[in-house]
Amino acid sequence: MARNNTVFQDWLVSKPRAPHDHLIEVLLASRNISDSEFFKFDYNTGLHDPFLFKDMEKATIRVVQAIKNHESILIAGDYDLDGISGTALLLDFFRIIRAPALFKLPHRIHDGYGLNTKTIIDAHKNKIKVIITVDNGISCYQEIALAQSLGIDVIITDHHTIPEKVPPAFAILHPKIKAESYPDKELTGSGVAYKFACALARKILSAEEAEKFKKHALDLATLGTIADMGRMLGENRQLVHYGLQVISLRRRPGLKKLLEISGVKDIACTTETVGFRLGPRLNASGRMARADLSIELLLAENEGEAEKYALEIEGLNKSRQLVTEEIFIRAEKLIGTNTQAPVLVAQSQEFHSGVIGLVAGKLTEKYQRPVAMLEIRDDIVIGSMRSIPHINLMEALNDLKEFFIKFGGHAQAAGFSVALENRESFTKALHERFNSYLPLPPPQLQLDTHLFPTDITIENCEALEKFQPFGIGNSKPLFMMENIRVIRTDQLGSTGKHWKITCQDNSSSTFQVIAFDYVPSAFENVKDLAVRLNLNIWNNRRSPQVIVEHVRK
What we know:
Layout: E1 10-13, H1 23-30, H2 35-38, H3 43-46, H4 56-68, E2 72-76, H5 81-96, E3 102-104, H6 117-125, E4 128-134, H7 141-149, E5 153-157, E6 171-173, H8 189-204, H9 207-216, H10 218-227, H11 234-249, H12 253-261, H13 271-288, H14 292-298, H15 303-335, E7 344-348, H16 356-367, E8 371-376, E9 380-386, H17 393-398, E10 404-409, E11 413-419, H18 423-435, E12 444-447, E13 449-450, H19 458-465, E14 479-481, E15 485-492, E16 498-504, E17 510-515, E18 528-538, E19 541-552
Parallel strand pairs: 1-12, 2-3, 2-4, 4-5, 5-6, 7-8, 13-14
Antiparallel strand pairs: 8-9, 9-11, 10-11, 14-18, 15-16, 16-17, 18-19
């Protein structure tokens, strides 16, 4: 897909600096970061005690009881990577302790998000006594009430927005639930599942074996935390820091094979490795076929199994890319020229549930407007929405809840279903609700500080590397290079998309930047650049590299 061509009307520099100001010191100040605390990683104190969750003792006792009494346990996950990895993590634990546990991941098209009545009825028929949800459950009041009435104890592990009516579950592990004492509120679904598994390990295993499992499972918790865009501060930052080290060891045959197939050689993995290489592939199974494939890959016990599942997932990911591109083009045509509306709505019978969220995100990024993608089926409309920072989707959609069969999500991403007969009245109400946000502020590009040619050094690149892991709340630093002149453009490769640009600034200092997925005309009469400073490693040679993210004329 072509590079996003959003025109940001306002470029806001958090902390302007002059060439003589120390780059890293100004960057820290722009983010209100305490040097000593931010760069400190401590495995023992950085990961909180799981028993600080108010329902953790109750939840672990119930599972231990189920194991002792040979009661059947079902893990009910979700079809995205946060739910997949959290489900795999709990299955891995039950496998280690040799306690049987079944799992159920919903089919995106046939089942939809979260628990459904059929899953509960089937569980009852199969004599399931405990259901553990992963990355879902908090918005499934009716289903959980049914389960409890049938004698099934439900333990919710979730992190999604909490509805007004909380399900009557046996126990709820959710960092934001009312009166919750757990100190970090930003864990994702896989993060909460990780805390539950670690607590169970302490109850069931020896201290040495429990500690071994705690480290062993960090990779799966990290996959979901990054893929679900958990805030990369506090405990998430600590968890991901150590989890990336575990992923880099390539101990799981499935992850090792998927890294090979995605072109990641024997190098340390970063949040970008997960976000752009592993994550899309592991999510592709749930988008295009069945999410169980990714569970099977993550829990593969040998390289033969791993290769089989990895190749199948790679094929699904290629299909996902093609379908996403096709539906993006179709959605843009449906939206037409009305791209300044307070909410952009595209609806079609030809949309695919597996990618409408991705397309909504790409359209939101491009037009800086909330976007609703509506897939029309026989008697139902499946919706996926993405938003801009200052519009909270869950607050807006909560005002339209009378239309929904189901809905849930976060401030910036949400999903719902609506009866087909209510489609027109719903879309009208949706437009009216978002009209209340007018006038919308112009799109703003937030930059950390200024970058000058003299800053382009290996030393600064190494210092910036210490800010990792990057993510929401700790994004990769974005710098402004202003008042520049383009001296020369040289093509890189044969596609005509990538360029090495030679520039000068007001001091007549010459420097080079790399531009991916651009056309040369983008740099005609350019005035300012928004860039990132990377450490480039090629043939064991290290060099600083400036990557162009946005241009302003």
